Amino acid sequence: MIGLRDSLTLARTKFYARPVLLVLTLAVCGVLFGALYAGVNMASGAIASARAFALAASNGKYLVKVNPFIPPEVLTIVGSSNAPSAALQARLKALQADFIAEHKALAKQLGTTFDEKSVPEPLVNNPYANPTLPADQRVTINPNAPAAYAYVSELQVDYAKTAKNGYDQLQALAKSYGATGFYENTTASVGFDTMQFLPGGKEDVVNLSNSRSPAGDAYFGAAFLSSVQNSEYTFVSSDLVGGYVLPENDRRRANDHGVPVIITAAEAVKIFGTQYNIPSEPIAPKARIAWLKDMQDKLNGITYTSCYRNHADLNQLQQIKQTAQEMADHKNDANYVKPQVIYGLPTTACGDRVVVEDHRTAAVRAAEQHEADLQVKLGAVEMPQRQLVTFTVVGVMPVQRQDEMYKSIPAFLAGILSANYDEGAIIPRQLYDKLPAANRYGDILTRSYDSTKGAQAMRAAGLGEHIVAFSTAQQARKFIGEQTCDFADFNCKKLFTGTAYATNYLLFDDIQVLVTKVLGIALPIALGIAGLVVGFMMARIMIDNRRETAVFRAIGAKRRDIVSIYLMYTGMIALGIVLAGLGLGWLVAGGLQAWFGGDITAYARVAYGVYGSHQVFSLIGGQVMLQCQIAAGIVAICLVAVSLPLVRNVRRNPIDDMRDE
Questions:
Q1: What b/e string do you get for 60-86 counting C-beta neighbours within 10 Å, with b at 16 or more?
Q2: Which of 283, 389, 585, 661 has its CA 20 to 30 A from that of 453?
Q3: Confidence class of residue 173 from pLDDT cuts 50, 70 and 90?
Q4: SS3 letters for 70-122?
Q5: CB distance 523 to 629 below 8 Å
Q6: Burial of 16 per CB tally in 10 Å (0-12, 13-18, 19+)
């Protein structure tokens, strides 16, 4: 019988049997498992780093944007090729009669008359209807009729009374999943069609129009990078965007009368770059942090102005331009009669029209003004309104441009895992609420919240967008999966729609699942190849050492002694493969970290808005248990691979082997 120490010594001598074959085996298997170890290392490191950055960007919260799913027919008149039902037609006619009666009574009270023919009919002829149908089946709803608006408002009031997806219900439901906070998101009432950003405080009244198009570049995600120019503002809780609010400085304290706003760095360069000497965004990732800090120092506390003009005021300006063009076209026409009053465009930013010529008598002017006032009181026309609104920049938010994601590996990693609030001009709610009422411009920025009885009822019931905070990603994922539909699902059967907010934290789990699936495919393939390679090598060595094995058997060695020698040798080879794979894997991961780590960290700090921290994006992760499992798999496959040639070897007749040699 051969002792353990002797068996170990004999196993070591096998390294000299086929050195070239041994090196090739270790090289092939080392590369295979080195790639696996490197992949596991980098994937686990990247996911862990992304999670840490995401958590820092959202102040330690996992946020879900939730909206109540409200049937489309409750929000607006849904078009249909079929005629509305008899009951709906009767209700629309009743609402039309109520509207006319109400305005007639108001007109009588004001000492004037009301022309009921000026009110659009709620039911109009459908030109596509079959002409053979009865008259009441050849009509469709006019969505612009006051009766149609009143009907939708009634639907909303009725829905709000019995709604099961208001704020109270959301709160109770989300708390059962571990929700820790609730915040309201509201969109400002203005937009690109009614409010215009004034570069340098100057207004281009010549090109003003009541049908302006939004600004924006021709790449995906540009809308959020032109929000100030398009006057697309969103009120967001300061608790959610506090990380982007810069420290108060002397300039902020001096300009505390403006509406506080956080803007994107990309748009800041476009609208303030020349004025404040802000260069374009540098290409080098590390330089972006210094560039962003410099921009924040320059813009913190500055003010800019936008001009709000309602559609009635814009129509007035449009009429002025049309009249001027008409007069120019008829300047040589002796029969042309000029209007009695000629208006000119405003001479100051966001100013009123000016009177150029007025040939009316005082009595005519008074009568026309009286009639205009009556029409406004009757609700027949809208009173022209204009207001210069001042904003104060309190933060600059980095946004990863979607067209830059595919320029490099670091940019791609930072792009898919970057912070995104879905808004490009954010008004921190708590800072806004601290403003005096006169500086909030509530009749402009929040006027639509209570514009109708339906809107009032929906708001009172909490049927608006909310942000729900969870303490773990698992809680957020479970809530989204079990209680919400996708925002694009118009046939939703649940009470709410929802998605991850601020960061793509759900993507981390998806990536981890994908990595696990890939590993589940790659590991068996690598083990299979390693088994074939090791099995071939061991078979070759056993063939070469048959005489030696026969001699040992002849002098009294047992089969188990021979088995123990080859198993020890196989274990040494397996250990060599593990060490080669681990070494190569860590070397590759470490090399890529050294090569790309700094750039990825710089991208991530800017993309997540944690540029002031010392957080590092690392491609080197732990996953000790998984790496040990791979090592165990290597040892197991090597033992399996050697078993067949080893069994055949020890079952051979030693006398035959000695005779053959």
A1: ebbbbbbbbbbeeebeebeeeeebbee
A2: 389
A3: very high
A4: CCHHHHCCCCCCCCCCHHHHHHHHHHHHHHHHHHHHHHHHCCCCCCHHHCCCC
A5: no
A6: exposed
